């Protein structure tokens, strides 16, 4: 079983890495990194923070593009062009197909992020060398942890993409749904806590129905904001390892449950 | 032994409840080791039948059995090779990588994969393209690559959906030889085709499908008559299909 | 034939290029004019921009900060003095930026640099800086700024001393801060707080030279506090203030008048506070204060 999952993952990964759009995404990220070096001088003190901000933004935004275009394309092409007929005529169970594809997408993103991380480290190091006095709060450890969580966030998003590809028939719907999930997931926390603080001060009493809806949504959509350590990395703030552990576990659990659900639904699906 | 037992399949088109009856009350049984040919006009339901056999879609009614066990459990796949119509392979893989994937997913060892790859690509005549990306392949080359992909793990049941489409005359002959080869090795072959002369030559059993229904079946005695020239499959085909069209149009 | 047609296309492009160039310069000139005439920029309130940032809060903060920098840069380049409205915009911008990323140090520096000296809005600046103090808990500069503002602009010595003491307790703060804080506390009439503060500093401090200085200041402050206590008792018992400090000794509230370790003489201010002619400054001291 592992062998089949791995074989499919490798094929998916190769297919993704050799896609031309990957180069476009690389170019975009490199442009942001170059911009970083150009813009750094505009700031007064917190150059380290601005540099980390821009680097993490480049990595995570490139990741989003990767998920929304390459990952969705890799999932959808199989079904649209009926390549899946070939794969499923080999002794793959539907669940193995889902996991193989998912691992493949993870590999594509891992590869792309590793390349970008290399460039990113070079950028940080060179800005660091240019303005050595303004990197007081910077810490490589926190930066790498933040990068890891960016990756985890994208892994979650990939699971969402796989899930929606498994239940819908067009890639456009997958794109819309996974984008919507991302936007809701990343802003949900802010809205929930804002409403809570408003309710506490009794300024605006949000309707009970709205609060309940948000509660339900918060169970369905992962809280992407929890994986966002950009501010911590930017300022080299101390990391609370138990918090990170809980977040990590939360993400992995969500991925596993979502993919199991996806393979359940995929089992009932017909490919014609 | 492959058995279709009063199988029906209806496609639902979108949210509007428009439906197409693709396969209607189909019953066939194909003994192990024989070559079965399914013929019929475009849209007759041949590909649908094959997809049901591979458990890619499920019949609405009836059941499909391979060696007395239902196809829905998927365990038979280990021994099946399938060539879809218009096979679309991965764009950015090379042929070698594609075949490696086929071998690995069936649990073959690297040496066996390499050996089979060499054999099959030589047999199908695309050994020269092993290192090329599949997106650069022509229609016929893709068809040949699909054949290699289907046969790599030496399956005992081979399902081919229009294996000759897009092939040059030499390619057609190659496919015929391949099927005869498989027959000689005692494999079961299930294929559909529009090329009646080849079908007639290769098969032990032929079924004509029209508008989802089995309109005629020919056993080995009929086929012997075809080969000796006493009867002509083409005429029978036109008769069966034309007659049925008339019948269908009458009540409506 | 095809060659002919592409020749015409090239000609068309060559003809259109100057038109494009004209419009391009025109458009940029218009934008420049517009930006000058615009009194204030557009600002998304922080509770929305935090949501709209979609996880790029830090980056949005950087961008907003660049905008406010260029806005005031434009103003000074065009020799337009910022209006009250501009300063409102500035304060609100910094508020939004520091809501997006409350650890971002640059906006606080800009606030301290512009909003106090140029705009004279000390309370607003202090409010913004206070936000920074809440988040940058290890940064001595922000409380130091607030302390300085209180001391220098608002003449609120008590509050100023409190913040400078807070700054002095933070790592990396310069060694003159504690003595400065203590002196400010003294003038703010809070000798006892200053004593406690110095004791804590001494407990945490491992530097010999600093310890010696702090101990000296502590001694002086303890004595001042002792005199202040005695004055308090006197006032409580006798329902009046002393005329001279020696009265405290003669009426038994103090065994003897303690000596100022800095070598000054004690006196009483009109408001009843104790001071020393040394102002608690060592003669040889060259600290920046
Ligand atoms: N995905 C689908 N959705 C809806 N209807 C379909 C779908 N695929 C096939 N059909 C319909 O089912 C019927 C049978 O189609 P099928 O593809 O099985 O024909 P076929 O015999 O393979 O034809 P051909 O010789 O052209 O390959 C046709 O009427 C077709 O319109
Ligand atoms: Mg077909």
Molecular structure report:
The complex is a heterotrimer of chains A (272), B (252) and C (289). Chain A is built from ten helices and no strands. Chain A is mainly α. The model of chain A has no long low-confidence stretch (mean pLDDT 88). In chain B, strands 6-7-8-3-9-10 form a six-stranded mixed beta sheet, sandwiched between helices. Chain B has a four-stranded antiparallel beta sheet with strand order 2-1-4-5, covered by helices on one side. In chain B, helix 2 crosses helix 3, helix 2 packs parallel to helix 4 and helix 3 crosses helix 4. In chain C, strands 1-2 form a two-stranded antiparallel ribbon. Chain C has twelve helices and two strands; from the N terminus they run H-H-H-H-H-H-H-H-H-H-H-H-E-E. Helix content of chain C is 67%, strand content 2%. Chain C is mostly helical. The longest helix of chain C has 36 residues. The chains are: A mainly alpha (272), B alpha/beta (252), C mainly alpha (289). Chains in contact: A-B, A-C. The structure holds adenosine-5'-triphosphate and magnesium ion. The site of magnesium ion (MG) has 4 residues of chain B, from helix 1.
Q: What keywords describe this structure?
A:
heterotrimer, B: 252 residues, alpha/beta, Rossmann fold, 6-stranded mixed beta sheet, 4-stranded antiparallel beta sheet, globular, disordered C terminus, C: 289 residues, mainly alpha, two-stranded antiparallel ribbon, 12 helices, elongated, binds adenosine-5'-triphosphate, binds magnesium ion
Sheet-strand content of chain A, in percent, reads under 5%
The total count of strands of chain C amounts to 2
**Reading side by side through the largest sheet of chain C, how are the strands ordered?**
1-2
Q: Tell me the greatest interface.
A: A-B, 26 and 36 residues
What small molecules does the structure contain? Answer: adenosine-5'-triphosphate, magnesium ion
Q: Kindly report the average pLDDT value of chain A.
A: 88
Could you give the count of β-strands of chain A? 0
Mean pLDDT of chain C: 78
Low-confidence stretches of chain A: none
* SSE string of chain C, helices as H and strands as E: HHHHHHHHHHHHEE
Mind describing the biggest β-sheet of chain A? Answer: none
How many H/I helical runs of chain C? 12
Q: Which descriptor suits the 3D outline of chain C?
A: elongated
Order of helices and strands of chain A: HHHHHHHHHH
């Amino acid at each position: 079983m592992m062998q089949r999952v791995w074989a499919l993952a490798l094929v998916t990964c190769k297919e993704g890495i050799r896609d031309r759009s990957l180069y476009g995404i690389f170019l975009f990220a490199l442009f942001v990194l170059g911009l970083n070096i150009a813009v750094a001088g505009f700031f007064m003190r917190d150059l380290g923070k601005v540099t980390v901000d821009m680097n993490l933004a480049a990595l995570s935004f490139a990741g989003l593009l990767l998920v929304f275009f390459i990952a969705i394309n890799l999932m959808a092409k199989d079904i649209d062009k009926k390549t899946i007929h070939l794969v499923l005529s080999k002794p793959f169970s539907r669940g193995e197909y889902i996991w193989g594809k998912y691992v493949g997408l993870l590999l594509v993103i891992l590869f792309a992020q590793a390349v970008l991380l290399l460039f990113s480290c070079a950028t940080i190091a060179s800005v660091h060398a240019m303005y050595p006095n303004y990197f007081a709060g910077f810490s490589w450890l926190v930066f790498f942890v933040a990068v890891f969580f960016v990756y985890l966030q994208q892994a979650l998003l990939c699971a969402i993409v796989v899930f929606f590809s498994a239940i819908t028939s067009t890639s456009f719907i997958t794109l819309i749904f996974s984008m919507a999930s991302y936007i809701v997931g990343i802003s949900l926390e802010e809205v929930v806590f804002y409403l809570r603080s408003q309710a506490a001060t009794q300024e605006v009493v949000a309707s009970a129905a709205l609060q309940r809806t948000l509660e339900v949504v918060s169970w369905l959509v992962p809280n992407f904001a929890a994986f966002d350590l950009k501010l911590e990395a930017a300022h080299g703030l101390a990391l609370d390892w138990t918090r990170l552990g809980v977040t990590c576990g939360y993400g992995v659990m969500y991925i596993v449950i979502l993919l199991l659900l996806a393979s359940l639904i995929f089992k009932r699906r017909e490919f014609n | 032994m492959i058995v279709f037992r009063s199988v029906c399949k209806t496609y639902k088109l979108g949210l509007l409840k428009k439906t197409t009856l693709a396969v209607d009350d189909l019953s066939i049984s194909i003994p192990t080791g024989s070559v079965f040919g399914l013929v019929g006009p475009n849209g007759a339901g041949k590909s649908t039948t094959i997809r049901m056999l591979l458990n890619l879609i499920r019949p609405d009614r009836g059941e499909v059995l391979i060696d007395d066990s239902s196809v829905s459990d998927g365990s038979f796949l280990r021994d099946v090779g399938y060539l879809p119509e218009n096979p679309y392979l991965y764009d950015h893989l090379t042929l070698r990588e594609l075949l490696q994937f086929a071998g690995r997913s069936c649990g073959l060892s690297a040496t066996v994969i390499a050996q089979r790859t060499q054999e099959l690509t030589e047999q199908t005549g695309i050994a020269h393209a092993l290192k090329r990306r599949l997106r650069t392949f022509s229609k016929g080359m893709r068809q040949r690559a699909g054949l290699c992909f289907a046969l790599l793990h030496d399956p005992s049941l081979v399902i081919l959906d229009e294996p000759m489409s897009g092939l040059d005359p030499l390619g057609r002959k190659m496919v015929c030889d391949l099927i005869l080869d498989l027959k000689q090795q005692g494999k079961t072959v299930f294929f559909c085709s529009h090329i009646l002369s080849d079908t007639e030559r290769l098969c032990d059993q032929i079924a004509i499908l029209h508008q989802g229904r089995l309109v005629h079946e020919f056993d080995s005695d009929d086929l012997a008559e075809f080969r000796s020239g006493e009867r002509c499959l083409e005429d029978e085909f036109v008769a069966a299909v034309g007659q049925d069209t008339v019948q269908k149009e009458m009540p409506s | 034939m095809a060659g002919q047609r592409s020749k015409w296309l090239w000609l068309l492009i060559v003809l259109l290029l100057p038109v494009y160039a004209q419009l391009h310069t025109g458009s940029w000139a218009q934008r420049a004019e517009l930006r000058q005439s615009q009194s204030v920029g557009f600002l998304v309130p922080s509770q929305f921009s935090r949501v709209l940032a979609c996880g790029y809060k830090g980056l949005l903060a950087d961008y907003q900060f660049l905008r406010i920098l260029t806005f005031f840069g434009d103003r000074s380049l065009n020799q337009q003095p910022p209006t009250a409205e501009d300063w409102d915009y500035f304060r609100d911008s910094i508020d939004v930026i520091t809501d997006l990323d409350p650890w971002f140090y640059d906006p606080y520096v800009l606030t301290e640099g512009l909003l106090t000296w140029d705009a004279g809005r000390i309370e607003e600046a202090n409010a913004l800086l206070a936000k920074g103090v809440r988040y940058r808990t290890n940064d001595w500069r922000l409380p130091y700024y607030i302390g300085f503002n209180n001391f220098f602009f608002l003449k609120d010595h008590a509050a100023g001393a409190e913040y400078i003491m807070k700054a002095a307790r933070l790592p990396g703060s310069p060694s003159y801060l504690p003595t400065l804080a203590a002196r400010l506390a003294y003038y703010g009439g809070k000798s006892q707080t200053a004593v406690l503060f110095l004791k804590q500093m001494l407990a945490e401090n491992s530097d010999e030279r600093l310890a010696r200085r702090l101990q000296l200041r502590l001694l002086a402050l303890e004595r001042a506090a002792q005199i202040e206590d005695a004055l308090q008792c006197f006032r409580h018992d006798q329902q009046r203030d002393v005329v001279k400090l020696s009265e405290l000794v003669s009426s038994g509230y103090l065994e003897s008048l303690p000596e100022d370790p800095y070598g000054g003489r004690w006196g009483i201010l009109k408001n009843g506070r104790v001071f020393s002619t040394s102002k608690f400054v060592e003669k040889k001291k060259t600290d920046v204060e």
